[in-house]
Design brief:
Layout (H helix, E strand, L loop, with lengths): L12 H9 L5 E3 L9 E5 L2 E5 L3 H12 L12 H5 L6 H12 L7 H6 L6 H25 L13 H31 L8 H11 L3 H7 L5 H27 L4 H26 L15 H10 L1
Antiparallel strand pairs: 1-2, 2-3
Helix pairs in contact: 6-7, 6-8, 6-9, 7-8, 7-11, 10-11
Length: about 300
């Protein structure tokens, strides 16, 4: 059996002879520790330090540019979509708060998403908005027709389907168009920045959160109050989009930058006004009068008798 002394590493005689023959030869010192420490290299009698941590920093920066954690596995696996919902309650609440209280100079992506966009918040915001708009619209119709003897209440469940189609199409198709346009402009104009697709969808999803309490308040049957709430909600929600996308498009040509922002605001306005006009229509009561008999008919009937 080999003794412990036989298992120890011994210096190679050939290497020792080479170093003694050429003292100025290059030597490389490697550390066995797991921490990333600079490696020392001797070239021509001078020490040169190699920082091996630059590659790791470069990989971290590239992962941040991808717009969040890189999903693992293929798109057909559950792990691929699990990373899109990797947020906690405090993060979602902070993002909802940032969407209903936008401040000048605070970019929603930079200050709230922090390179970690999610689909959890936008999905549930859209689902909640669908049911709040549909249910509030039914209650608004019932209250506006209250006292009308000819009206019979019927739950309009088809409004849930219509609200779901409109809201989810807006929350997905519009971000796809905005992201595609910004990506195209980024290729045409090198100085133009951009966001990832997931970041764009996340911004649009959270910007709709202000419409949930607004749709509930639309039950109040006063047109002036409803339109006031629409204006306030559009200003708050639109500010989130403008403050987020303006820093990206302002480096573009003036015409393209203004046209992009105006298009975003107009589409957002159409969504709010369209939901109000369809789901919260004001009933107009037409007074019914008893049928009157023409005087000529009365005279002819009298002569007949």
């Amino acid at each position: 059996m080999a003794s412990p002394n036989d298992l120890q590493f011994q210096e190679f005689e050939e290497a020792a002879e080479l170093l003694s023959a050429d003292p100025g030869a290059s030597t490389l010192s490697m550390s066995g520790s797991s921490t990333s420490t600079p490696a020392a290299t001797t070239v021509g009698g001078e020490d040169v330090k190699l920082d091996l941590s630059e590659d790791e920093e470069g990989r971290e920066e590239s992962s941040e540019l991808l717009g969040g954690q890189k999903p693992s596995g293929g798109f057909w696996t559950f792990e691929y979509y699990q990373s899109f919902f990797n947020v906690d309650t405090m993060q979602v609440l902070d993002r909802v708060k940032g969407s209903v209280m936008p401040l000048p100079g605070r970019n929603f992506v930079k200050h709230h998403l922090r390179s970690n966009p999610d689909l959890y918040g936008p999905f549930w915001i859209c689902v909640t908005l669908v049911f709040s708009v549909a249910i509030s619209g039914n209650l608004s119709t019932f209250l506006s027709e209250l006292g009308n003897p000819s009206y019979h209440y019927r739950p309009q469940f088809h409004r849930v389907t219509i609200a779901a189609v409109v809201i989810f199409m807006y929350a997905w198709l519009v971000p796809i168009g905005v992201w595609g346009f910004l990506t195209w402009r980024q290729g045409a104009e090198r100085q133009i920045g951009g966001y990832s697709f997931l970041e764009t969808v996340c911004v649009y999803g959270y910007s709709l959160s202000i419409y949930i309490p607004t749709s509930v308040l639309w039950i109040i049957p006063f047109e002036w109050l409803r339109w006031t709430l629409i204006v306030v909600a559009m200003v708050i929600s639109g500010s989130v989009l403008v403050l987020t996308f303006w820093p990206v498009v302002r480096e573009d040509t003036k015409v393209a930058a203004v046209a992009t922002v105006v298009t975003i605001v107009v589409l957002h306005t159409l969504l709010a006004v369209g939901c109000k006009m369809y789901f919260f229509q004001t009933a107009v009561h037409v007074p019914t009068t008893a049928p009157t008999t023409h005087p000529v008919a009365i005279t002819m009937a009298t002569k007949a008798h």
